[in-house]
Amino acid sequence: MWLLNGLDLRHQRWECHVLNRHRPGPAVRASRSVAIPRVIVGRNLMPGLDRLINISDFEREARRRLPAPIFDVIAGGSGDEETLSRNGEALRALRLRPRVLTDVRKRDLSTTVFGEKISLPVILAPVGYQRMLHRHAEIASALAAEAAGTVFVCNTISTYPLETIAETTSGPKWFQLYLPEDKTAASDLVERVEAAGYSALCLTVDTQVPAKRERDIRNRMTVPLRPDPRMILAALRRPRWAIDFLLGGVGRNAAQVPMSIDAAGRAIASTTRPVTVEDFAWLRERWNGPLIVKGVMRGEDCERIIELGADGIVVSNHGGRQLDSAQSTIEALPAIVEALAGRAPVFIDGGFRRGTDVAKALALGARAVLVGRPFLFGLAVGGQSGVEKVIDIFRDELDSTIGLLGYASVRDLDSDAVAPTR
Ligand SMILES: Cc1cc2nc3c(=O)[nH]c(=O)nc-3n(C[C@H](O)[C@H](O)[C@H](O)COP(=O)(O)O)c2cc1C
């Protein structure tokens, strides 16, 4: 029973920016006094991290450490997981074309996004469920992004309040928005995001209706976690995870509006809804900063999106978690780059696991790549250090990729670097 309570009520509180309508008043300000160490786990102090030399190693280690139903939540996709696989397969099927006799002794991985310089074109995608992987959740990920000099994208349903994340980390930060149906709640949320200092808003548009995620159905997985006997059994098989989960102080200290597990579940479900042109226009009026649309897969949609005032596009199929059988993102990218014709930066995610993958997307016109599962695996394995190591792997691999390709800067990569597919 204690374990039930521990899993459920005492430790599993979810920040829900949607329902949490209050302004960051005394309750949230109180969270500033919460002692959140800036470096939660000393860099590379996590034993065994050095053994993990690529993203597949991190995935394998995450599978070993997490209860199976939780690993499935992050690793799985929808339906037959065709899109999930296709994202990676299509990237790997592309061939690079190295050039020679160029001076690549000094290489530069940095780029700019909406006027902010980032040290490498790899951004941490907005992802939920981070609290299920490590008790420091978004704080650990955001600190790792800051240490690496790249963007952290806070998701709408994070476990720490958006203000706490903004106050704890000083790196570049965007906020991912699932636009609440209720306009008062939406307005309040956008104001909070602005007040907290997030530099860009990333509106997700590909969750019109719920997807069929069969691993979660079979595992009877619910988010937030419910103490189902299977879940408890799975947790007992992973005691290290269970201890971390139970130690987690999220919610107890975060001082957001306390929510019952049911209310949190309803709030999470309410984020799945179609975003209309009217919604977009409404949001554009309220948000003055860069507005990025995430979940675009067709070039034809871009004209309207740009006319409505978007400043950037993320080519995304939600990592194969929404429409199964959708095209891979790398296949969709060229038409979107062509349609935008330089009017707005194009970002992409889905299946990026290697520096070579990143180089291919940049060569085909993406400004930067977002990664989701890779950093979640890092978070599960080693908290902040794990995420930092994952970013380091991308950095090292991208550095050697552009050098071997014969380019001195990621900004110089062009379509000649990739062999035509037909
Ligand atoms: C566990 C999980 C949770 C996610 N949660 C969100 C979310 O809350 N909002 C969102 O826009 N995208 C979400 N995504 C999608 C990611 O932002 C991103 O599009 C995807 O993970 C990229 O594919 P990759 O995991 O292969 O890198 C989620 C993805 C995963 C795996």
How is this fold's topology laid out?
Layout: H1 2-10, H2 26-30, H3 55-65, H4 68-75, H5 82-93, E1 111-113, E2 116-118, E3 122-124, H6 137-148, E4 152-154, H7 162-168, E5 173-177, H8 183-196, E6 200-204, H9 214-218, H10 229-236, H11 239-247, H12 261-269, H13 277-286, E7 291-296, H14 300-307, E8 312-315, H15 329-340, E9 346-349, H16 355-363, E10 368-371, H17 373-405
Parallel strand pairs: 3-10, 4-5, 5-6, 6-7, 7-8, 8-9, 9-10
Antiparallel strand pairs: 1-2
Helix pairs in contact: 3-17, 6-17, 14-15, 16-17
The structure holds flavin mononucleotide (FMN).
The site of flavin mononucleotide (FMN) has 23 residues, from α4.
Strand order of the biggest β-sheet: 3-10-9-8-7-6-5-4
The chain-level mean pLDDT equals: 87
State the order of secondary-structure elements, H for helix, E for strand: HHHHHEEEHEHEHEHHHHHEHEHEHEH
Task: Report the radius of gyration as a whole number of Å.
Answer: 20 Å
Give the termini distance in whole angstroms.
61 Å
Major sheet details: 8 strands, parallel
Helical coverage, percent range: 40-55%
Bound molecules: flavin mononucleotide
Give me the secondary-structure category.
Answer: alpha/beta
For the record, the count of structural domains works out to 1
Residues in β-strands, percent: 5-15%
CATH class placement: Alpha Beta
Low-confidence stretches: 1-14, 19-34, 250-258
